[in-house]
Structures are given as C-alpha cells and as structure tokens.
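Milestone 3.1: sequence recovery, worked example.
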C-alpha cells in the first residue's frame, strides 16, 4: 500500500509537505506515527493518507519509493 506522510521536525511539529512511501505495516491508519527511512537516516513521521493510488504518485518517483516497516515505539519519542 502507498501512504503519504509528514516528517516530524525538531520542535515536535510536523512538516506541511506530504511524501509518498510504500507501507508494510498491517492495520496502519491516518494519524499513526511511524519511522520513515530517508537518505539521511530514519525519521519519525505521521501518516496523513492511506491507500494512495499509484496514479497519484509521480511516475518517475514511483519505482524509487522506500518502504515504511515499523511504527514509532514509545521509547523512540
């Protein structure tokens, strides 16, 4: 499934920009906090949309989408 996320900033706020990822977490829902892999390491993020159709993702980006595989644990916060 493809999801859109907002990255968490240093002050605990979330970015306005949405970024697409594949998601392998069962029962994911909007508002869940996950760990997103980025080119600069892992970063906490909030799920803002689920079941995003592939047609809504830029065709040049689609083959390069990274996969989110875990939720943020309370100790990660």
């Amino acid at each position: 499934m493809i999801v859109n996320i907002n990255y968490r900033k240093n002050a605990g706020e979330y970015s306005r920009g949405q970024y697409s990822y594949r998601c392998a977490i069962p029962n994911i829902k909007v508002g869940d906090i996950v760990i997103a892999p980025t080119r600069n390491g892992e970063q906490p993020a909030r799920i803002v949309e689920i079941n995003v159709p592939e047609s809504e993702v830029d065709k040049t980006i689609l083959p390069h989408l990274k996969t989110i595989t875990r939720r943020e644990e309370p100790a990660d916060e």
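The radius of gyration is 12 Å. The chain has a mean pLDDT of 93.
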